[in-house]
């Protein structure tokens, strides 16, 4: 466990670093700029709330009482592991960071985290805590302080995604069935719904916001979130 403080060679990677997500069942405080690519070994920088659209961060305590922090860069698709506030390694997501007898599973979409769990040797897991200043932290704080508002946002996100499925799915099906490889064999489908471009744009934006809300509360459903999953492709 003590060796985790050292920084592995830059090309070091865990063997098991690639899998689909489905396999996972003025505010800057005067800090300098974050590195554009992989952070250099060193101390954990202070989290910059002005970069909440680009980054997030989670932390927890390990069984040996040391701390582990995962800093996620959504733009680069990378996660950085820090042990007792010292950089250990950075890797492309999804990734499993080995921490002695336990590991940290990290997977994300463009809307937020899909999995950020500490997994024990027995396979049991628990989610890491959002660091103060992160979007996940503020969303959880909102639900704690105003549970009614939190529930309303969650329900609203579901309704938005259901409406998007009902309105956009027939239009997408019509587009697909008019492709040559389909139209040459089958009769094309004609959508009973035809929306102007501005309405489809509005639906796309609201679906994105709903996807953010659900990602911040760690909710995901294969069918319900199909529209926002498509936006990340």
Summarize the structure.
With 233 residues, the chain is α+β, with helices and mostly antiparallel strands. Helix content is 31%, strand content 22%.
Can you lay out the helices and strands and say which pair or pack?
Layout lengths: L54 E7 L5 E7 L4 E6 L2 E7 L2 E5 L2 E7 L4 E7 L5 E3 L1 E2 L4 H11 L1 H31 L2 H4 L13 H20 L9 H6 L2
Antiparallel strand pairs: 1-2, 1-9, 2-3, 3-4, 5-6, 6-7, 7-8
What do the pLDDT scores average to? 76
Alpha carbon gyration radius: 21 Å
Low-confidence stretches: 1-38
Query: Could you tell me the strand content as a percent range?
Result: 15-25%
Question: What is the count of β-strands?
Answer: 9
Main β-sheet description: 5 strands, antiparallel
Structural class: alpha+beta
- Numbering strands along the chain, what is their spatial order in the largest sheet? 4-3-2-1-9
- Given the C-alpha coordinates, what overall shape results? elongated
Q: In percent, how helical is the residue content?
A: 25-40%
Supply the number of helical segments: 5
Note the run of SSEs as H and E: EEEEEEEEEHHHHH
Gap from first CA to last CA: 38 Å
